[in-house]
From TrEMBL:
NCBIfam families linked to this entry: Endoglyc_H
Keywords recorded for this protein, A-Z: Glycosidase, Hydrolase
GO biological process, one term: carbohydrate metabolic process
One of the record's GO molecular function terms: hydrolase activity, hydrolyzing O-glycosyl compounds
Matches recorded under Pfam families: Glyco_hydro_18 (PF00704)
Record-linked InterPro entries: Endoglyc_H (IPR054861), G_crystallin-like (IPR011024), GH (IPR017853), Glyco_hydro18_cat (IPR001223), Glyco_hydro_18_chit_AS (IPR001579)
GH18 domain residues: 55-311
Source species, domain of life: Bacteria
Family: Belongs to the glycosyl hydrolase 18 family.
Name this polypeptide is given: Glycosyl hydrolases family 18
Length: 409
């Protein structure tokens, strides 16, 4: 599936896995009581993003590789935004072996998006798009399905709520993958964990969006002590790209479910259109997109929007010429947005997706000159380049993973 924060796993793996269901044995139920379902139904919450007639478009963006702002570059021909919800993929649930607690973790690319919220988050929100943060495991034994107590679930819910407040987010998305339950002596999935977590988070965020990527052990642990996950979350959607499958989440109506899921870069346009038609014909309220690239994809997306809304998609972004830095040699890994001419401190570079001590290669437009510096504010060791450079380790001295500020002329 989507790229894990530390390892190069992608959401594409879900498509390869097909309909394999990850089920494990439930541990002994917790005895702490939960409140019964009350008048806090997600359908009553004011969470509509844009309000265009028809299913809402939800789009996951792998921010390790792509710029989330591209979600805002697509509209219908009548002016409405194509995507209602953009999801930052992804933050992790790490496990602190000292405290034996789950800890919210952001990798450098996610940190860049969150710390530069004006650039990445608020620019989308200004267009009416809701921005969520996706949460999943990180191979350390901690996940949404194995909190051992209600207090432990409450503690992690508080961390999530704090992140939503700090970064001005519109909500949290849960994805039960890559936890590797049992690692570091952690427990296996249990019956109460996910219910405890979403209940605590809903109490902390009564008007924010909570969504569930229907996958993993949590998908079979959606009710405990009379409380359903569907009474606490707003939306849930199918996790297998290129397929149509209705998530079985008690408490959610068709308007809150997304049975169709596509990978923009691997699902054929004919399949995407067929899934969109089924969504409309069966009156479901969500259509899920994944893997939106930085390049113009409006022709492909038109095949979907014509079926969903009877309108083509328009790309409103601009092709900006500029310098692009890459995380890996030979122009691999995460890439920055195109950076125009100017003198940039580290903070200014971060707005383009640049990370300190990170770059390993660079592409430079013909006739441009790039001077790279090892320290901030154009200080320290410098390297001047006038052409594409695929491997910073070949420079003298070695410039790999040491560039902090840049001058582009």
């Amino acid at each position: 599936m989507r790229t894990n924060l530390n390892l190069p796993l992608t959401k594409t793996l879900t498509a390869l896995l097909g309909a394999v269901v990850l089920l494990t044995s439930a541990c002994k139920k917790e005895k702490a009581a939960l409140p019964t379902d009350a008048g806090n139904s997600p359908s009553k919450l004011s969470t509509n993003a844009i309000g265009v007639t028809g299913p809402k478009g939800v789009c996951y963006v792998e921010v390790n590789n792509n710029d989330i702002r591209n979600v805002g570059n697509y509209t219908l021909s009548t002016g409405e935004q194509l995507f209602d919800i953009a999801i930052i993929f992804a933050a992790n649930i790490n496990y602190d072996t000292g405290t034996q607690k789950a800890v919210l973790y952001f990798n450098p690319q996610v940190t860049n998006v969150l710390n530069n919220k004006t650039t990445y988050i608020q620019s989308l929100q200004a267009k009416g798009i809701k921005v969520l943060l996706s949460i999943l495991g990180n191979h350390q034994g901690a996940g949404i399905s194995n909190f051992p107590t209600q207090a432990a679930a409450n503690d992690f819910a508080q961390q999530l709520s704090n992140a939503v407040t700090t970064y001005g987010l519109d909500g949290i998305d849960f994805d039960d993958e890559y936890a590797d339950y049992g690692t570091n002596g952690t427990g296996q999935p249990n019956a109460s964990s996910f219910v405890y977590l979403v209940t605590a988070l809903r109490n902390l965020m009564p008007t924010k969006i909570i969504s569930f990527y229907f996958y993993g052990p949590a998908a079979s642990r959606l009710s405990y002590n009379g409380v359903t996950v569907g009474s606490q979350v707003n939306y849930s959607w199918n996790a297998i790209y290129g397929t149509y499958s209705v998530p079985n989440v008690p408490g959610l109506t068709a308007a809150n479910l997304g049975p169709a899921a596509i990978d923009i870069q691997s699902t054929s346009s004919s399949t995407a259109a067929s899934l969109a038609t089924q969504t409309v014909n069966n009156n479901y309220g969500i259509y899920l997109y994944y893997n939106l690239p930085n390049t113009d994809s409006h022709t492909y997306l038109t095949s979907v929007s014509n079926a969903l809304y009877g309108k083509p998609t328009v790309y409103t972004g601009t092709s900006t010429t500029g310098v692009t830095f890459y995380q890996d040699i030979n122009y691999g890994g995460t890439v920055t947005s195109a950076i125009p001419k100017g003198t940039y401190t580290l903070a200014q570079l971060q707005a383009y997706g640049f990370v300190d001590n990170w770059a390993s290669s660079v592409k430079i437009p013909t006739g441009w000159t790039v001077t790279m510096y090892s320290n901030d504010n154009s200080t320290g060791t410098s390297w001047t380049r006038t052409a594409n450079t695929p491997n910073f380790t070949t420079l003298s001295p070695n410039a790999n993973d040491v560039v902090t500020s840049v001058k582009i002329q």
